[in-house]
Amino acid sequence: MQRHHFGLAALSASVLLASLLLAGCGAPATTGADATADSPARRYGKIEFRPCTLTTVGASANVEAQCATLQVPEDRAHPDGRRIGLRIAWLESGDGGSGHPDPVFFLAGGPGQAASEVAVIVDAALRQVRRQRDVFLIDQRGTGGSNPLSCLGADGKDLPMDEDAAPTEAAMRDYAQRCAASLQGRADARFYTTAEAIADLDAVRQALGVDTLNLVGGSYGTRVAQRYAIAYPQHTRSLVIDGVVPNDLVVGGEFAKTFDNAITLQSAQCRKDEACSKRFPVDTREQLRSVAATLRTAPVTVDYRDPGTNAPRQDVLTPDSVVGLAFAFSYVPEYSSLLPLVLDEAAQGRYAPLASLVRGATRSMDFQINRGMQWSVICSEDAPRYQPPAENDDALFGAEAARAFFAACPVWPHQPAAATLTAPLKSDLPVLLLSGELDPVTPPRYAEQVLKGLPNGRSLVARGQGHGTLTAGCMPRLLGQFIDTTDAKALDASCLDTLSYVPAFTSFNGWTP
To answer: Residue 84 half-sphere exposure, CB side, CA atoms within 13 Å?
Structure first.
């Protein structure tokens, strides 16, 4: 039987997944089958594409696409130096390429997620858009097929983290230092930032031979979209930003506050539901605090079965792992609906369901975010601006959560981003801003903040939704209408009123009908 130590760092992949990835809708990672050299080629502008299939691990769906690689300088100040390939996936319009000349660029979240790795979600979200427009997924440099900043060992395999070691900031810094060393000869991590990414996007635009773009960004991708629109307004036709990140936001700096607000909203929904309030008389937020306090006093050794292998395991469950799980689950209402039940079980001394979920979250999230690329962004753009808040004993997350988020930065190669990059987007461009009512990291108030500089913008809040709303209810139809007309204020969004809250599980058989 294996015995391990759970903690916040053990859940860091799922916590950082939150860092803003569009797959807040809970989809697993996607892998792409690269085109073969003998496949028939098609040209779009100066780029030669070949057929490829984008498939999602664990799902039956796949997306047929055309794939290509565009070479760009790693360091644009030295164009004769190392060049890196940007992986591009082209999802053709339904009209066979005779549609509008202004395609859609989809920008993934993270930071650290590859756009091609959410192809199935994008295809569903933009199905109406694709009737008339091509959609391009460009893996941001450092992710997916664009010279990923993968942490590799001497054997060329993924550099493992020690599951048996207590999760500490020092352990994370040590891992980051070893990861940075493994990049020697492959990449200079200083040049994998948002500023470089938007220059890459414009290089792709030029190579495709198109004049204007429609940008659709999710979470961190909303930062990329806004900054592209500021740098290249003449080449931007419209923006859709889902899970809005204001340009001056320190990513990771407000997680404690936004998560606390989200879990409070979730608790309030339980109080309003007769079956939930009767089954769980203790408020979800208070139950989470109580379970975490119990584990803080005495971490519990739990025997359970690994949800991935069904093998028996024995793990030490800590308060950080429980709060981390609640944070990760709060991205997705279907997952957070389990929290009242598993917390109630834990409060009664039955920790196996909780341990199983922690283990499952750690396993499933670890491969979805490129840590190296994420560190390049946050260490350059966010860590230098982070100011620790005053200690709040009532907060579910303490200051240690943000310290863990930025723990790699003292040893990770980076250079501070220009202060001007925090300037808000102020533009007459048509912009549709989307938020989930229960989003634990990019709440609706962020969209309202950005909307102040957008006279032709409109903010929509999806009731009962978490982080990522592009596929919620009638949203795909609204996206198609907006990108077609670019008139956000004229949209009839009343169809979103049909969205409802996911009821809490009152037993492991589901919720009360």
So the answer is: 28
Nearest Cα to Cα of residue 300 among 2, 1, 15, 5? 5
Phi and psi at 431, nearest 5°, equal -135, 130
| Helix (H) or strand (E) run with residue 365 in it | helix 352-365
Task: Please determine, for residue 34, whether its predicted confidence score (pLDDT) is greater than 70.
Answer: no
Length of the chain, please? 513
pLDDT band of residue 499 (cuts 50, 70, 90) is very high
Instruction: Cis check for the bond before 111: say yes or no (omega within 30 of 0).
Output: yes
- What is the distance between the alpha carbons of residues 219 and 224, in angstroms, rounded to a whole number? 9
Provide the 10 A C-beta neighbour count for residue 311: 9
Q: Which of 306, 417, 318 is nearest to 359 (CA)?
A: 306
Is 420 exposed, middle or buried (CB count within 10 Å of its CB: 0-12, 13-18, 19+)?
A: exposed
Task: Fill in the amino acid letter for 386.
Answer: Y
| pLDDT band, residue 361 (cuts 50/70/90) | confident
What is the Cα 367 distance to its own chain's centre?
12
Average of per-residue pLDDT across 148-155: 93
CB atoms within 10 A of CB 505: 18
Average pLDDT taken over every residue of the chain: 88
